[in-house]
Amino acid sequence: MGLPQYTAAWVLKSQKGTESLSYVEHLALPTLKDDEVLVKIHAASLNYRDLVITKGGPRISVGKQDLVPGSDGAGVVEAVGSNVTAFSVGDHVCTHLTYALSDTEIPRFGDICNGLGQKVDAWNALFGLDCKAPRAGETVLVQGTGGVSIAALQFALAAGATVIATTSNLEKATKLKNLGAQQVINYKETPNWGEYAKSLTMDGKGVHIVVDVGGAFTLSHSLKAVRADGLVAVTGILGQAADVPTLALITGGGSGINLELAKALHARGISILIADIALHKDAINWLEKLSQKGDAAKVLFLKTNVTSWEEIEAAFDFFEGQFGRPPQIIVPGAGIYEASSPGFWDDRDAASHYKLFDINLVHPIKTTRIAIRRLRQAQLPGVILHLSSIVAQKPSVVLPLYSASKAAISQFIRCMSPLEDICGIRVVGVAPGVVDTPLFRDNPGALNHIDMKKDFLLPTDEVVRAMLSLLTETRYPSGTVLEIGDIGGWREVQLLNDPGPQGRSTKARSKAQEALSLVHQALNNDAQRRDSVTKL
């Protein structure tokens, strides 16, 4: 029987995703050359790179049309060229594609299925371990349960090393332990998993090797986990630097949490527009220092009244005029506390429209709508990060407007969750407990609710770390509300059957009775007014 002239294949016509694949039933095979072998594929496995190639993107171009994608497969040699001596017809080998042509340097496998997934994954894992081979007594950190990480785990165990693995899935955690991982960290339950991995090492100095497959989304944690003389082997492309936006717009960035976030983003090379009604003295000092360093152009300030739709729109216009395109990081962070504005119990102004709702609720919703429109017009993905609060789940009769505004924001975030799949825009939120910011330090009204000495207040930098994780790590999908209740105490708030706020900052109640007395006072005043009206 002669050699086959045709094969069937899935052919990539363009790089717009899996929809670019077309099934070709009769694809002509090239002529077998003298130094080649023809392999019939019996089984194939899928790699992350195969999906990346179908989607394309920066630096990922196949350079030709009608490509048959694929990396790992195993099959049987059907024919050999006249110069081939190392292989014979019937040999079980691993190669690339259905009826693919390959050179003679093909590894042998006794069983066809055992050949699957051993080329790309195993060689990438070996690359990660090659520069600093693990030894008995050392610790290796692997990330997730992909092929590269599993291969690295097996190689490290074979060398006698201890392995720490990460996952977000209980079932996968069990599989990792069955494979030999001595410690498994759930990175969703332990957001600061890099530091935690370091603490698990025998001497507390960190792991010897990290096989990092997440790139931009995991590298900061890998650096926290590794010891001073250790190795971080960046082996995968799951999170490319190109995936991290470089432009941000922050409302309310003139003080508090949002100012500290602006500083952190700037330190990472991100250009920022702060849109706020005014700048706190800390912000003024920071901008002056940037100006002295010649770095002021990367952080701009625009006076903005966020209760005005026109001024928010103008802030986006100003941003695009300065930076040439819309921001891909948008933080509608401006907000006020009920104790610092006319609240529910202080309604003597009959014409009051509750300014708190305009700033805490309507403004972030408006900003989100404008951001989505601008990003879609520019055909860009983006991340919109909202500020909710634990009071969304722990409502207060003392602060009913503030509680209602934050509960509404949490629900609004969840409403926006489908956008990630529809157009690549993630809408997420952070829900901290009581935070040590100028909102409390400089606000006499707020001190009626908080005792700065007795109550535990979250450090601002802890909230900022969580915000950075939400902005840069795709493990937090659109619709995530991340509660920050304590140092290292992060958790995703569940829509149903949630246990409620956790951590020390959620229990700042040393002045609870004093705060409640203000409500009783308002109720008594109401009763006195009624008596006065009755007497008249």
UniProtKB/TrEMBL annotation:
Keywords: NADP. SUPFAM superfamilies: GroES-like, NAD(P)-binding Rossmann-fold domains. It comes from the Eukaryota. PROSITE patterns: ADH_SHORT (PS00061). The keyword NADP applies. GO terms for molecular function: oxidoreductase activity. InterPro entries: ADH-like_N, ER, GroES-like_sf, NAD(P)-bd_dom_sf, Sc_DH/Rdtase_CS, SDR_fam, Zinc_ADH-like. This is Enoyl reductase (ER) domain-containing protein. It comes from Exophiala mesophila (Black yeast-like fungus). The lineage of its organism: Eukaryota, Fungi, Dikarya, Ascomycota, Pezizomycotina.
